[in-house]
Here is the input.
Amino acid sequence: MNAPTHTTTVRGACPHDCPDTCALLTTVADGIAIKVQGNPAHAQTGGVLCTKVSRYTERTYHPERVLHPLKRVGPKGSGQFVRVSWDEALDDITARLKAIAARDPEAILPYSYAGTMGLVQAESMDRRFFHQLGASLLDRTICASAGGMAMMYSVGAKMGMKVEQFAHSWLILIWGGNPIGSSLHFWRYAQEAKRQGARLVCIDPRRTETAEKCHTHIALRPGTDAALALAMMHELITHDWLDHDYIARHTTGWPALRERALQWPPERAAEVCGLDAQVVRDLARDWGTTQPAAIRLNYGMQRTHGGGNAVRAVACLPALTGAWRHAAGGMMLSASGHFPVQRDALSRPDLLRGRTPRTINMSTIGDALLGLQPETAQRPIEALVVYNSNPLAVAPESAKVARGLARDDLFTVVLEHFMTDTADMADYVLPATTQLEHWDIHASYGHTDVLLNRPAIAPVGEARPNTAIFRALAQRMGPAFGFDDPCFADDDETLCRQAYGDAVDFEALLDHGFVTLPVPDAPFAEGGFPTPSGRFELFSERLAAMGLDGLPDYLPNHETPQPGSRYPLAMISPPARHFLNSSFANLKSLRSIEREPVLEIHPQDAKARGIADGDLVRVFNDRGEHHCRAVVGERARPGVVNGLGIWWRKDGPNGTNVNELTSQRLTDMGQAPTFYDCAVQVVKLVDSAAA
Ligand SMILES: Nc1nc2c(c(=O)[nH]1)N[C@H]1C(S)=C(S)[C@@H](COP(=O)(O)OP(=O)(O)OC[C@H]3O[C@@H](n4cnc5c(=O)[nH]c(N)nc54)[C@H](O)[C@@H]3O)O[C@H]1N2
Ligand SMILES: Nc1nc2c(c(=O)[nH]1)N[C@H]1C(S)=C(S)[C@@H](COP(=O)(O)OP(=O)(O)OC[C@H]3O[C@@H](n4cnc5c(=O)[nH]c(N)nc54)[C@H](O)[C@@H]3O)O[C@H]1N2
Ligand code: SF4
Ligand SMILES: [Mo]
Here is the structure.
């Protein structure tokens, strides 16, 4: 009775916002994807995927996938939608956008981030559409712009060590990242180094899975990394653990930085960081006396007020010791600057035709939607088109985002796989395809290979790729709105080819699924930094010219909790291991591992509040309150609580998640959010015994 099956294997790329950008192999039987695995031919993937993506078919065929266009019929947020045809949805959306664009195209705002990192589904036809329309531009700051700017002003670009070289390091500082949870494939290289005798040091307020497996865990207070780095420099100077030749030939501004660092004896940093001074001295000694030594810096340490400065400070360390001379030395925050992406060809900024629309910062979308800024008060946002993002769950100060999205005079379209918190607030929800259903091409921020993603299966239900949706909207906008450029007809395979132009061999991508970029093993062994000076800029003339501090410094958090104050605890909200931002939070198998929203709290802080493990607690500050389950234990350091993210609000016991508490205050550089710079108080709500 078994019919013969036709089985194929399709090469793809993991689309998620994760540095590893794994190469996927999808097994398809009679048109159904039955298995998603890591491609063993791709070195950095090594044939293994994380738990999340190895469950990819569960996500793709999830019974709650949005399978056809939905139109709101009840009040906003009531969840009352009816199924409509694509034509009806697209015609109506176009009519609404036309009416607004005829008055003021800048009243329309796209909102997208990295739900897919694919260059085609994330930054091609969508950008063309909004450029031609003259819509407001979105500053995509929500994740990495503080650290990104810091890299621009010191290293010169988001470039650094090759990930595979970490396997040969003798000392690895894992700084502000939890790779076992969020960059498993880097961790494999770190493990290899460890087996060969390398020392691993984890610098993180939270005792993460990674911290537990490192030789040393330095649990500093959130937002104090720059102080630690400056004190390390102090020790490098006083013990002369410096590479004077490298400093002289390949850096700028050493005398000035030297003077600043000398103001940071270990005792001063220890006080700021909440550490023992000996810990600071030992770390400096390790760094100053070991080669090759490497830093895997991650974005977790740039989500506080001084995040940009902190990245600049840490980035100085490999330059001062000449760690860059070794292939297995130096540092990596992101590898994305190595990729020759032809962004203008993809997104066509020329379609703006000389217009310079206003820019809205995605990290303050709450205030923007509510018109609480001078610019948006005068010219309100009237239409919002959301794709590849779930702002109601992931943006700070979510009560304001919720109020903004609830505005009756706001027209909201959401392109999604699922009815997320944001989709619930839409006027139209349009079903989008997943990575198994569309073409795409990828860069990576954790390795230096280009990957191609071929569709493995036909779209599920009536889902369409983001590109197809924007093509259809462009066609309906028509010549009256200037949509007559032939680029609006480019199909997805053409867009894939345009992403790298001649810089990458597309035929090789079609044949193998990935291509390795020709990046040297030790990119800065002989200097050659991509800065204006060609040197590593310890002091930045460019920052100084803007009237800013040319040197990195320690900037205290916006919200430094004081004992005895109303909000005496610092809350950080790093990712839960089995979710990816708010993606996967609706997958049964992964939820059964993460169970429910939790707040990790140190036994000392719990005891002082009469909180026992498993109690339901109320976490609050002036912005709002969030209810979740207390996990009492040593994962939290005293004075710091960890609210693991990012759950969907609607799954929280009081309909909120951690972002109810985070603020819209921004970082020192890059206008990024300060998710981990957040003071709270915690009280017991319900005894676990009573619950
Ligand atoms: N499983 C999983 N993987 C992910 C993600 C996810 O949500 N889930 N997110 C992806 C995304 S979007 C990104 S941007 C990347 C990187 O995402 P990151 O936000 O860097 O995430 P993590 O690697 O978890 O590292 C953050 C770590 O920084 C620590 N931390 C918090 N505050 C500070 C501080 O002030 N100083 C220091 N030194 N450490 C601090 C946290 O405790 C946490 O362990 O990971 C990606 N990978
Ligand atoms: N408190 C706190 N907040 C945080 C963070 C934190 O550490 N703490 N981390 C921050 C960071 S680092 C980031 S990067 C942001 C991430 O924020 P987002 O980029 O918004 O990430 P996700 O929550 O994963 O939401 C992505 C959505 O895109 C959808 N999607 C995926 N692929 C496609 C597609 O092809 N088409 C369409 N139309 N939709 C698609 C998914 O279904 C998902 O709902 O969150 C930030 N928020
Ligand atoms: S480790 Fe990262 S890139 Fe690899 S499958 Fe998991 S989410 Fe995707
Ligand atoms: Mo991110």
In short: Residues 17-18, 143, 175-178, 181-182, 203-206, 208, 222-223, 225, 298-301, 304, 572, 574-575, 577, 579-581, 676 surround MGD (ligand 1) (CB under 6 Å).
